[in-house]
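Give me C-alpha cells for this 253-residue protein.
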Amino acid sequence: MNIVIITGASSGIGREFALQLDTLFSNMDEIWLVARRKERMEELSRGLTTKCRIISMDITDPVYMEQFAEILQIAKPQIRMLVNCAGFGLMGAVETLSLQEQKSMIELNAVALTEMTYRCLPYMRKNSRIIQLASSAAFLPQENFAVYAATKAYVLSFSQALNQELKKRHIYVTSVCPGPVDTEFFDIAEQYGKTLAVKKLTIVSAERVVRKAIRDSYGKKSLSVCSLPIQTFHVLSRILPHGLIFDSMRHLK
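Here you go.
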C-alpha cells in the first residue's frame, strides 16, 4: 500500500499539500491526514479523490505517538512521501512568554517532527520523499521570535543532515523555508506581539509555497525557498554579518 502522510493537515500549508498531492499521484492508495482537529480533516477528505485515513492525534503526546507506531506496524505501508507541517509560533520576548508556551513550540516544531520522521523512516523506500516545513526564520536568529526561529533553525539543520544520510537509500529530504504565508499562523503568532509590517509585504499564498515545495522535492533539492524577496533574504543572511541585519530590522520598527 502506497501512502502519503501529512501532519498539520487540518489547515494552512498542510491542508494545501493534501489538495495538491491528491491530484498529482495516480498510484497512491491513501493519504493519511494527521492533526488534532478531526472535523476539519473529515471536511478536507470529502473534497479529495484519493482515499484518506484520518488520524486525529496530538503528535507531542508520547501515548499517541506509540499508537501511531502501532498503526504503522500493523498496516506496513510504503510511505512514498512524509510531509511534516505541524507547528506553531508565538511572537514576544523570551521573558514575557510563558515557559510552557515556549516549551510547547520546541516540543511540536522540533521534537515531534523528529520523532515522526524517525517512526516513518523504516517504511520508506527508494525514491521516497520527506518534506519538512521550516521557515525563513531559520536563516538567522529572530528578536522577539527567538524560540520559534531556533526551532526552525533546528528543522533546517536536521533535515539537511538527514538528506545526506539518506542519499545511500535514495530517499530525498527537502526543507521548505517560506517567509510569511497567508494562513491562520498569524492568528496564533500575534497573540502577544506584531510582526514587522515590512515582512507582511512579502506574504505569499499557501498554494504557491506548496507548488514550489513539491517541484523542488521532485527535483531532489534540499532547500525550497519561495518568492524573490525571501530568496534574497536567504542570500543576505549568508553573506552579511547578522549584527548588521539585526540593526537594520530594528530601524524598520
